[in-house]
């Protein structure tokens, strides 16, 4: 497959490369370059912005479980305060049904090859994602591609980076595409039951994704994760 015209992004150290124009057949392009990442050291990413800045990923945040426990405690305290001022919030179905932090969701059974699952899932990206450019990012693992490519969103990126690395180990995820403040991951080992799916959904909730906080009831969102091979995040 011929590499489309593109350029290296400015910056120190190994730099990501980005195509000048959106690519045709993004799923095939992504899969072709993904298959050659061992030779090139470059991980593919489908990206919706033509111009963006590159920056190396920071060190992995330690104490992820403690960080999420503190974030959940802060959210619960905030919610308890505001629901006293808005009776409609008291029974909202958008709120996760946990009083205390339940701990990280347990790893799923390793039932598929993560890279094969990624090549299948990339074909299921929604057409609404729009035209996408190809990014080739020098990274040691899929979870580090976003940081290397300089992608940002209105979320705690340090927490998200740590979660991406943890999800990669627990659920065989791979980063597929980032379009604006939307992100898609493939999932090789999704939860098989609603119990662990609820705990995964709580981890998603603590990234601030608007898919739950504004529109989708928590239980409906958690149920969609059971057997689901594609995770979407949106920070509006």
SSE order and pairing:
Blueprint: E1 6-8, E2 17-19, H1 26-35, H2 37-40, E3 42-47, H3 64-83, H4 114-121, E4 133-138, H5 145-149, H6 157-171, E5 173-179, E6 182-187, H7 194-205, H8 210-215, H9 218-225, E7 230-234
Parallel strand pairs: 3-5
Antiparallel strand pairs: 1-2, 2-4, 3-4, 5-6, 6-7
In short:
This is DUF4253 domain-containing protein. InterPro entries: DUF4253 (IPR025349). The protein is an alpha+beta fold.
Describe this structure in words.
This is DUF4253 domain-containing protein. The protein is an alpha+beta fold and 236 residues long. The protein has one domain (6-60, 103-230). The chain has helices at residues 26-35, 37-40, 64-83, 114-121, 145-149, 157-171, 194-205, 210-215, 218-225, and strands at 6-8, 17-19, 42-47, 133-138, 173-179, 182-187, 230-234. It has a seven-stranded mixed sheet. α7 crosses α9 (218-225). The longest helix has 20 residues, at 64-83. The mean pLDDT is 89.
Mean pLDDT: 89
Total domain units: 1
Q: Which stretches are poorly predicted, pLDDT < 50 over at least 5 residues?
A: none
| Spatial extent as radius of gyration | 18 Å
Walk across the major sheet and give the strand order: 1-2-4-3-5-6-7
β content, as a range?
15-25%
Outline the biggest β-sheet.
7 strands, mixed
The helix content is 25-40%
What is the structural class? Answer: alpha+beta
Number of strands: 7
What best-fitting shape do the alpha-carbon axes yield?
Answer: globular
Q: List the total number of helices.
A: 9
Rounded to the nearest angstrom, the distance between the terminal CA atoms is 36 Å
Order of helices and strands: EEHHEHHEHHEEHHHE
């Amino acid at each position: 497959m011929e590499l489309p015209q593109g350029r290296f992004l400015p910056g120190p150290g190994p730099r990501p490369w980005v195509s000048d124009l959106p690519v045709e057949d993004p799923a095939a392009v992504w899969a072709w370059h993904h298959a050659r990442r061992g030779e090139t050291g470059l991980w593919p990413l489908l990206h919706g912005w033509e111009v963006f800045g590159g920056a190396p990923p920071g060190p992995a945040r330690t104490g992820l479980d403690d960080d999420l426990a503190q974030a959940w405690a802060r959210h619960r305290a905030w919610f308890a305060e505001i629901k006293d001022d808005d009776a409609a919030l008291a029974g909202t179905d958008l709120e996760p049904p946990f009083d205390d932090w339940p701990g990280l969701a347990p790893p799923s059974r390793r039932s598929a090859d993560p890279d094969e699952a990624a090549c299948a899932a990339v074909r299921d990206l929604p057409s609404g994602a729009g035209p996408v450019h190809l990014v080739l990012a020098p990274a040691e693992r899929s979870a580090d591609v976003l940081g290397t490519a300089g992608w940002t969103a209105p979320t705690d990126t340090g927490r998200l980076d740590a979660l991406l690395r943890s999800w990669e180990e627990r659920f065989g995820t791979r980063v597929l595409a980032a379009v604006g403040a939307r992100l898609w991951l493939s999932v090789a080992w999704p939860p098989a039951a609603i119990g662990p799916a609820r705990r995964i959904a709580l981890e998603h909730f603590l990234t601030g994704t608007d898919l739950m906080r504004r529109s989708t009831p928590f239980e409906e969102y958690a149920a969609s994760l059971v057997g689901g091979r594609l995770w979407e995040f949106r920070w509006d």
